[in-house]
Amino acid sequence: MNTTLTICPWCGCGCSLLLREREGKIVGALPSSDCPVSQGRLCVKGWNCYEYVRSPLRLVSPLMRKKGTGYKKRTDSLDDFQEVSWGKALKFVASKFKDIREKKGSVALGLLSSAKCTNEENYLMMKLARAVLQTNNIDHCARLCHSSTVVGLARAFGSGAMTNSIEEIEKAEVILVTGSNTTEQHPEIGSRIIRRVLKGAKLILVDPRKIHLAKFATLHLQARPGTDVAWINGLIHVILKEGLADSDFIDRNTENFSSMREIVEKYTPQFVEEITGIPAEQLIEAARIYGSARQAMIFYAMGITQHVTGTDNVLSLANLSMVTGHVGRPSTGVNPLRGQNNVQGACDMGALPNFLTGYQKVEDRDSRKKFEQCWEVKLPTVAGLTETEMFVEGNPVQALYIMGENPLLSEPNIGHMEKFMKFLEFLVVQDIFFTETARWADVILPGGSFAEKDGTFTSTERRIQRVREVVKPMGESQADWKIICQLAKELGYPMGYSHPAQIMEEIASLTPIYGGVSYPRLDKIGALQWPCPEDSHPGTPYLHKGGFKRGRGLFTPVEYEPPREITDEEYPFLLTTGRVYQQWHTGTMSRLTFTLHREVPQAFVEMNPRDGLFLGVKNRQLIKVISRRGEIIAKAFLTERVREKTIFIPFHFSEAAANRLTVDSLDPQAKIPEYKVCAVKIELCGENN
Q1: Using alpha carbons only, what angle is made at residue 227 by residues 223 and 228, rounded to the nearest 5 degrees?
Q2: What does the pLDDT look like over 215-244, one tens digit per residue?
Q3: Which of 210, 237, 481, 510 counts the highest number of beta carbons within 10 A?
Q4: For the CA atoms of 233, 234, 236, 240, what is the dihedral angle to 10 degrees?
Q5: Is residue 658 exposed (0-12), middle (13-18) or buried (19+ Cβ within 10 Å)?
Q6: pTM above 0.85, yes or no
Q7: Any idea which fold 63-143+341-501 has?
Q8: CB contact burial 331-349 (16+ within 10 A = b; e otherwise)
Q9: What is residue 132's DSSP assignment?
């Protein structure tokens, strides 16, 4: 039996684990005691991360849609596709891309990269888009989860990443968690928070639901969904009024403070209570706890970012950290928790329409120049379309190449997405399973799972770690980096890499924050946290030591704006969405992991018992949830976890897809959809059998 050290493929925690292989099959997973994140522990997903790798439902050969099978219509059967050779599939894809580019220009091509694939694969996908296809229309699922983080923190601090490290939780005096069901979304971080609280730290939880962390919270502020700017401004108001601001830090390290102070003046605790539902006295107490601490950390996730005001929410949290001086030191900072295993790395690799690797702007001539010299091409000079803009009616994109993403379940307003797919001229999907998106594809390319490739992932704390091949790819499937190289060759641009280590060498040569990263270093010391600009650099546990990357931290005055869609007499309930512990994102992998799926096999609707009583809904009864965009049927789960007039639905289940209901309004700055707030109504569907 062989044992291989690699990285967990689920959330962004970046836990190391050991996979045990026997006769070409993975037979078990064990935690790594040397891992500084998990420290010899794994969550339930980590323990069972390998089950789907050899699933009989894996895609194992290239597929092309048969003629006469409903061109540009969804198909639920693989019988509508024919197996073809890699050569035939890639030649066909290349010819279609060339034809569409010749007729309609490079602006007609779009690519979606993947937060589940390695850094090296995301880099090559970005290179394929820009150097080969001559388009900046490349994006990935960070647009749907943390694009407002990248925009907001980059504006405030100069860097759009988690400022501190997970292990710094151990010395935090106060921890503020908002918009993150941490024990379910990032279990090892959630466990660390609980252990720290049990040792004496104070926890302020701001969440509309009574999640597990509420049991350990010093204060649980149960704000109405979509009111985050108001309560954050309220905290700052109290901190300033009671003299808890760090004036020395503000004077030495920040700018535009007076403009922000003027805005928050009206956000009195009483005014905030009217907007958010948070009792004034609780808001005051929370401000005193956070403002009086020597070391306070903020953690947040998609409950903050997935709003039309997502960027404003992030900027407000940055304001809060700066007004108290809780940034630029250990056990402080503003810490976004990335949802997928490599969403941080995919951003770092330039799988974004406006950035090359390391957040070098595509519109900056000097940045482009070094890439042009390395790649020996001229690059497009204007930022491309975001993922959400590619799906807007009237956009120029006619051909899409999607690697490891499932927008037909993850995008808001799925009904709109289905209409868009009917008008798309050509769709290539590269994945490991027959996803909801692959059902619309013209060509399906079978990629490799995390256990079938070498590469690196970058975790939520900027920790770059080695991913290692444990078993060979299943059937004729291939590691995604190899597929991209072959397609580039068919398009007339050979990529001569024989191993991902060579790709990382190129990444390091072009990307200052990765400049000191190499496979030999990672194999020797285990991990490096960027920025790591040179070979002798040890990596950076926390950012902005001695000053912000942008020079001075920028305070931004932010006014509260209500959600785009509010409740009324016809649609009296607020819907918010999220994840559950045993499932993961669109369910592509977790629903084919038997041990996970048996625990939560179907969708449900959390509803307050008082609302259930009023509507005559019994526990576990089927109900219909209806928005202005669509409807789904699922079982009601009556629970005090949610406020009255608020319901919660997990978004993992295609047969009751929460995103059939959600609104596709976008944050105007980050172009992130408002998943966390929309108006719905509820109808009875009869008793559960």
Answers
A1: 85
A2: 999 999 999 999 999 999 999 999 999 999
A3: 481
A4: 130
A5: buried
A6: yes
A7: Rossmann fold (3.40.50)
A8: bbbbbbbbbbbbbbbbbbb
A9: I
